Fold this protein.
Amino acid sequence: MYNLAILVSGNGTNLQYIIDKIDTGDIKAKIEIVISDKSSAYAIERAKKNGIKTLILDKKNLKNNLSDEILKNVKNCNLIVLAGFLSILKGEIVELFKNRIINIHPSLIPSFCGKGMYGIKVHEAAINRGVKVSGCTVHIVDKGTDTGTILKQKIVTVNKNDTPESLAEKIHILEHKALEEVINEYISGKIDPEILKR
Ligand code: GAR
């Protein structure tokens, strides 16, 4: 079985979509564990409701040890998926899981990404800049912040009436699909081998 670890910090709609797609057989994997860096993350409730093992590793308490604690709990996972996870992974986990950690980001990287750019802030920045298109990016997690190899991007048109909230809503739908596609590409060995050699 292909084992996933899903890392979350918030509402968990991306997590829910993956759970649902596993249920329907569209993603042939098992979620081994859902880890949150925030005790209040609703994503944890979603996981529990579905009988999935959960773990809260509070970033406020763990500070610089967060990544190492995560590593201890994901050792038998094939792929780590950051699905609305707002801490930066550091140290050994990034090396040991090289090319096997992916993140979903709600903009077209390299626009509106990097430190401090997450969630609704990304959409506020995009609207303020007056972009005509935005979207989402699934990328490999490396030592930097949103700097790893881009695996997939999906695009939406930004209309003049869009607000950060309406844009977030449109992009969320694309995020779910992009994550599903990339996870399935990993499972079926379809990720470009040249990318995985890097
Ligand atoms: C998503 O929009 C995701 O792209 C974003 O957080 C949201 C989580 O939604 N991630 C980042 O901004 C990472 N830099 P969810 O909890 O409903 O899946």
